[in-house]
């Protein structure tokens, strides 16, 4: 049974918006006059003749301003004092807004970064291990390409330039996931693309537990329900297929509309990679339950062992898998905000593309043209960038491995990171000592203690949907690579970056903090 698309159907396709000019303001069409009912309320329309939301009933005509009595247009503004309120400018005219904005908490990853910045400004020594930034300099070739396109100020196609879409299609094809440029859509970062995708798909979303903080948050912002499903042991990023099937069946039995499942390959926050068998089983469940798969593969080029394969669901369920990636992790261009999505083949994929472009046209119009040009160069993978990504991968592997060693030496249970720049230690073996010595009962208690007493910024596992009582945390060591580009370039070039003075000093500081926190050193527990 095909996956359901709420916004498009075979007999009512959504127009392709990719070639449309983006406009910031659309004037109202005032050319029509009332015909059927002279007393009917006017109907506001756009230049395309589409009724404006909130306008009057569709059988009325557009407003004819020429027919208005000029004297009515020139009438003086009603003095608000006649309504029993002070006139503007008079004492007491300020009036509080009678409602409060929707409470939306700041993303946990951004919040910890701001907390560390405050402590640093107070002169407190900090260890920034909370923010998931790649921590290496932008390659000069990328800045050269960006500068070469800096004069491109015009709006472009909503889907992205042909140059960029062809380059991204080639990038995926070289990884065993053939792509047509027409099935590629770009946006100002993979994060907005994900939001637009979820808006197009609709319904509830299954997310791994734990998983990147924004998956569940975006589903909730769009009015859906995030269903958290645990991952298999040691295979973060992909919900357990058996538990996925059970969760979806139960949710639908209570009236929920579950339409999609998100996976992360490799995973944030655990730094692990799901097996081929798990991915194949997930695809089979998605087919049986008519689910769309959104595969976030932003870290796929940062697998520590280059011989290991990332098994994308797009290889096993191409008709129902969307793949996203961006420049922010492998090329450390997070601030450039440029992402791409590869949509499924077939009728559903085309309908999803039309819907996604419609959402994008109303939200960002088109991604920045200079960024698109630089991204096209990046996705073409010239040798200089391939080498840069390879050095980044080796740096991440060396430092995350050294950080994992420090946590294991302190008695935490740690799985060796396999990709990206994250470590996910579990202090469960030390629960009794932490509870007795520091009153720690939850992961938030533990990370709060590390921040306030030691200036160590890490994120509790509960921020990623993990059990709040589990003493797990995400540690992101990539901001230890250097205080400036000179140190970061040295770290990239070093055969043993963990031995560089500034990185070794940070590692020693982490060991001291853990030793002081726990008072005794546990046995190493690397999995």
Structure write-up:
By secondary structure, the protein is of the alpha/beta class. It contains 15 helices and eleven strands. The protein has helices at residues 70-73, 108-121, 140-148, 162-173, 190-201, 213-221, 241-253, 276-288, 346-363, 369-379, 383-409, 431-438, 443-454, 485-493, 501-518, and strands at residues 127-128, 184-187, 204-209, 226-230, 258-264, 292-296, 321-326, 339-342, 456-457, 459-460, 473-474. The strands form three sheets. It has a seven-stranded mixed beta sheet, with helices on both faces. Strands 1-9 form a two-stranded parallel ribbon. Strands 10-11 form a two-stranded antiparallel sheet. α3 (140-148) crosses α10 (369-379), α4 (162-173) runs parallel beside α10 and α5 packs across α9 (346-363). It is globular and about 60 Å long. Belongs to the class-I pyridoxal-phosphate-dependent aminotransferase family. Keywords: Aminotransferase, Pyridoxal phosphate, Transferase. Residues 1-27, 79-97 have a biased composition (Low complexity). It is an enzyme of class 2 (transferase). Pfam families: Aminotran_1_2.
Can you give keywords for this protein?
alpha/beta, seven-stranded mixed sheet, two-stranded parallel ribbon, globular, disordered N terminus
